[in-house]
Amino acid sequence: xxxxxxxxxxxxxxxxxxxxxxxxxxxxxxxxxxxxxxxxxxxxxxxxxxxxxxxxxxxxxxxxxxxxxxxxxxxxxxxxxxxxxxxxxxxxxxxxxxxxxxxxxxxxxxxxxxxxxxxxxxxxxxxxxxxxxxxxxxxxxxxxxxxxxxxxxxxxxxxxxxxxxxxxxxxxxxxxxxxxxxxxxxxxxxxxxxxxxxxxxxxxxxxxxxxxxxxxxxxxxxxxxxxxxxxxxxxxxxxxxxxxxxxxxxxxxxxxxxxxxxxxxxxxxxxxxxxxxxxxxxxxxxxxxxxxxxxxxxxxxxxxxxxxxxxxxxxxxxxxxxxxxxxxxxxxxxxxxxxxxxxxxxxxxxxxxxxxxxxxx
Length: 361
Description:
Elements: H1 9-19, H2 28-34, H3 44-54, E1 67-71, E2 109-113, E3 136-143, E4 146-147, E5 152-158, E6 162-174, E7 179-186, E8 196-197, E9 205-217, E10 222-230, E11 234-235, H4 236-239, E12 240-243, E13 250-253, E14 257-266, E15 269-273, E16 278-279, E17 290-297, E18 301-308, E19 314-322, E20 325-332, H5 333-336, E21 340-347, E22 352-359
Parallel strand pairs: 3-14
Antiparallel strand pairs: 1-2, 4-11, 5-10, 6-9, 6-12, 6-13, 7-10, 8-9, 13-14, 14-15, 16-17, 17-20, 18-19, 18-21, 21-22
Helix pairs in contact: 1-3
């Protein structure tokens, strides 16, 4: 099962609030989910491992399983203060039967997704995609500028309505042919190497995750900076963009879940960038059952996904209006009625891309 199912930086916000005593977790199931390193307590080490998973630095929890299951009838003990705690004794994860009768064949368990403290994991999907109720956008302001080949340049990400923000995460895409990533530096928020994932630099991908107590920063103040070396003459706006290709772009205020975008201040005015049009490889691939196709749109628009076989026969068409940034479409092999190599094509009014995938019988 996918370890990242339902796990986001908002879970780190909840863990931090519990550790600091600001808003302690009161559900034993939440506490089990937060004990990522499986040592019977909730500490900053759990936050570190969860952030590494979000950043794709690790792909699994080293000391835990992706899911834990507890006998639904089990009553968790309470400590001397009357607080329910799941760590005072080993909770039952199996039920033993002897001399079974027909009436005893049913057993109920509560499934707990490790790392998913707020319970957003989707148990019946491979990738854990859930509908996000986005109400606003956290905008990072960047000054566009021309850079010369060989020049070391720093991109300052400045605040714009950065009010009561508890955390954010996103994928920073950059043109790896045009620039080489050097490092990150804190500004008004404490961003360090621990907040960025650099395992996919060759793909032009930097993942990032940050959280703290609710933070407000004045407009135009530098939040954090990233430094690059230009491999060719280019513009800053042509090098970096914010998306959800790996770590999904989202931010959290005290009241709402938000999208994340970057706005470039250019000579022609401010341009809100949603990244480039891109169709991603379906995952898993090859597949039997469900697979998820991800794609990025530079602006909100209508799009059509067409699935067809090697002869050109259309197997499935999905049409819809999609948001700027990262979107997904889930397909099921039972609906396609095909096997082996097939193709999928995404079309908008301005762009088109085709990729192939494999269905296993």
